[in-house]
Predict the structure of CCHC-type domain-containing protein.
Amino acid sequence: MEMEENQEEVANQEVPAVNLDLVKQFLKLKPPTFNGGMNPVKANEWLTEMEKNFWLLRCDEVQKVDIGSYLLIGEADRWWNLKGVREPGMNWALFKVIFKEKYMPRALQNAKCAEFERLKQIGEMTIAEYEAALTNLVEYAPHLVATDEIRARRFEEGLRYKIKRVVRPMVLPTYTEVLDRAIIVEQDEDERKSRCFNCKEVGHLKKDCPKLRTRANAVSVMGYGGRNAMPGGNDNRPSNPGSMSGSGNE
């Protein structure tokens, strides 16, 4: 509902005639609008989505500014009218600079960069969850992972110890290889955790092993039968000692 309202607000804005056809093509892609707010993640996601669409339509630098500013609404649109339109020599690179200064201030970017450096796979976090979190934060610390191999080493460093001790000695050269191997090790760990130490089958633990329960039931039945067979501990003992011959009462 909010997206539809934002699209309607965009449609009601004045469109530069020179870019009208391109804007129409762009809007068919249902691009996100941006209404401001001090949320660096949201601002960065908007820039990323815009650049993906720019690439698809092969927009030039001026067209990027025209369309990007056209999709600013609310507070962001007011900011652009006060700040952006007055900047001389405006192109997309400059647009991103002043946009980040406003909505992705250095202090917040530094905080995200520090979060990237500290991130580790802890608790019940899966490899997939850890990788997604790292990918979301790497946008704020590209200088820390300048090459694919450096990124692979950073990914290794944050892995849970049981996984890292297997993956790290392999010294895999690419991020993709490290990620694939870490997933395989995690799957092996999960299988080991769910493998029964009694019957060696996967899917239950030893305490729930059906073979142990069957054996325990068999022992219980055998013990119960033995007690019935020997009620007094001696089946050969006569029930009435006085009935024995030679008792002297003949």
User: Anything to note?
Assistant: Residues 20-104 form one domain. The chain is about 60% helix and 0% strand. The radius of gyration is 36 Å.
